Amino acid sequence: MEQDHYNVIIIGSGPAGLFAAMRLERLGIDRIAVIDRKPYPAGGLLNDGKLNFDHRIGIDLDELQLDPSTANRYIEEVKRVFVGFPECRQVTMVENNIKIDSLRGMARENDVEFIAPEQWHWGTDNGKAMVDYLRDRVKATAFLLGVDVASIEEDGKGGYRCFCTEEQKKVVCSAKAVLAAPGRSGAYWFRDAADGLGLRHTFGPIDVGIRFELQKKFYDTVTDTVYDPKFIFNTARHHDRVRTFCTNPGGRVRQENYLNFKLVNGDTLSGRKTPNTNFALINTVALTKPLSDTTEYGRMIAMQFFLLGGGSPIVQRVGDFREGRRSSRTTFNSRTRHFDALKATCKAVPGDITLGMPARIIDNLWESLKKLDKIVPGILHPSSLMYAPEIKFFDTRFPTDANLETNVKGIFVAGDGAGKSRGIVGAAISGIIAAQGIAEKFSLS
Ligand SMILES: Cc1cc2nc3c(=O)[nH]c(=O)nc-3n(C[C@H](O)[C@H](O)[C@H](O)COP(=O)(O)OP(=O)(O)OC[C@H]3O[C@@H](n4cnc5c(N)ncnc54)[C@H](O)[C@@H]3O)c2cc1C
Predict the structure, then answer these.
(1) Whether residue 395 has pLDDT greater than 80
(2) What is the pLDDT of residues 23-46, one digit of tens each?
(3) How would DSSP label each residue in 123-191?
(4) Distance (Å) from CA 184 to ligand 1 centroid
(5) For residue 212, is pLDDT > 80?
(6) Alpha helices in 232-314 (DSSP H)
(7) Whose CA is nearest to atom 10 of ligand 1?
(8) To 10 degrees, what angle do helices 359-375 and 98-109 make?
(9) Which of 19, 35, 48 to mutate to test ligand 1, by most ligand atoms within 8 A of the CB atom?
């Protein structure tokens, strides 16, 4: 069994891990290793690449223990790095934009909050070039790729050992500090690993909902002004929070594969556009007694869809939903005298989303869509599509100090998988904060 020694091991090469490595190098820390089970360092940086430079989006100020002005300083810092990549383009200008004021006014009239952040975008097809650009900034860091961390244990000398597998081979790496930035895909693994180490954790809310796809022309009035508009609804019936999220003008709906289920998501290419736009509409769900484990709840919903869809997500036309009937393959892309066909960009099974989604969530989503249709008339065209399930698991939270060090000294956390962010910019910021905490620890020891 091989054994390597480092000062810092970072688990995960997404934005949290890469920005942490960048900051550690800048602070003069050497012998840094980034470990990722994937053969290419990237995490979610290969997905779409919409950047929201606004502390109200994707950044939980309480969780990161930041005030808005400090958060803005970090945002500026992260922005300087990302926008240095030539293919990253500004897609929403907020300064003196009277169209934004009028959209905000229309939303307010319908009791809806509207947020228009400054936004930039590079597109899924530029993802690899973006990752190469970032990786070029961390030249002194060792990248152990295709290496899966199975468990973390104390080494008895104040540091930690990560037990890993690389193909069939077992590898052990040790370090004085470990930064866990495993993203959503590694969140459940880390939850188990954290239990073994004695890390405290709590359950946060999850977001459950649908991916809505419509003809691009119906939403252009909004997306021509704000690329990824954020509408936030407080529902009248259940007093729950629903929001639009991750809008992709000219984009495609995608499936994400997990062990026992599939979820839907969306992205856009920078060059090739579709005639459709899609966005997520998600309902925040928090649970208390007797079940506080929101992960289990979300997984049960996802597995129910997996069962109903024969292993695929389900898609239902708005026209069918209104009539209370399932969608079927024969009528799906039909063109009638009254409306154009909308060609679905994702292979999902036509069915009935109300069979798999709890009634309260369906009520909330439909109430929100009806309000949105008042602000952007036409979106509830019968041909528009609702794909389910779209679920955002950011649920396991690890209490930390302001340096993102957990109750187990020397174990730091960052990024989406530890509940510290919800998106690329927030993940990058949390990586920087954790790196500063680690460097500070080394300067004191
Ligand atoms: C389709 C899609 C589109 C998206 N579009 C956007 C967008 O436009 N804008 C935006 O802000 N966000 C978007 N996101 C979300 C964004 O990708 C995440 O918020 C972000 O990547 C989180 O960063 P992270 O560093 O916390 O984790 P990640 O980027 O997920 O990186 C975690 C890494 O850890 C590795 N890992 C996990 N466990 C282990 C282990 N045990 N051993 C070794 N390696 C491990 C994983 O392989 C992964 O590479 C999108 C996500 C998806 C799925």
Answers:
(1) no
(2) 999 999 999 999 999 998 899 999
(3) -GGGHHHHHHHHHTT-TTSEEEETEEEEEEEE-SSSSEEEEEEETTEEEEEEEEEEEE--TTTTHHHHH
(4) 6
(5) yes
(6) 294-308
(7) 423
(8) 130
(9) 48
Domain shared by 326 and 215, yes or no? yes
Number of structural domains, the chain?
2
Q: How far is the CA of 14 from the centre of ligand 1 (A)?
A: 6
Pocket flag, ligand 1, residue 17 (CB < 6 Å): yes
Atom from ligand 1 closest to the CA of residue 12: 34
Q: Is the CB of 35 under 6 A from ligand 1?
A: yes
Q: Contact, 122 vs 20, CB < 8 A?
A: no
For a mutational test of ligand 1's pocket, the pick from 185, 188, 282, i.e. the residue with the most ligand atoms closer than 8 A to its C-beta, is 185
- The answer to whether residues 177 and 154 touch, using CB atoms and an 8 Å cutoff, is no
Residue 119 Cβ < 6 Å to ligand 1: no
Q: What angle do CA 325, 329, 331 make, to 5 degrees?
A: 70
DSSP string, 48-90: --EEEESTTSS--HHHHT--HHHHHHHHHHHHHHHTTSTT-EE
Give the Å distances, CA to CA, from 403 to 6, 393, 424, 434: 20, 23, 19, 5
* Cis-peptide into 249, omega within 30 deg: no
- Determine whether the shortest distance from the Cβ of 137 to ligand 1 is under 6 A: no
CB 363, CB 356: distance < 8 Å: no
Indicate the pLDDT class of residue 350, thresholds 50, 70 and 90.
very high
Give pLDDT, residue 291: 87
Do 198 and 302 belong to one domain? no
- Indicate whether 173 belongs to any domain: yes
CB 416 less than 6 A from any atom of ligand 1: yes
Answer yes or no: is the C-beta of 249 below 6 A from any ligand 1 atom.
Answer: no
Q: What b/e string do you get for 113-150 counting C-beta neighbours within 10 Å, with b at 16 or more?
A: ebbbbbbbbbbbbbbeebbebbbeebeebebbeebbbe
Q: Check if 48 has its Cβ closer than 6 Å to any atom of ligand 1.
A: yes
pLDDT greater than 80 at residue 85 = yes
What percentage of the chain reaches a pLDDT higher than 70? 97
**Nearest CA, atom 26, ligand 1:** 415
Does one domain contain both 412 and 340? Answer: no
Same domain as 174, residue 199: yes
End-of-domain residue from the set 372, 392, 412: 392
Q: Which two structure tokens, joined as six digits, stand for 430?
A: 């949390």
CA of 423 to the centre of ligand 1 (A): 8
Residue 40 belongs to some domain of the structure: yes
Residue 128 has pLDDT above 60, yes or no: yes
* Measured distance CA(231)–CA(19) in Å, rounded: 30
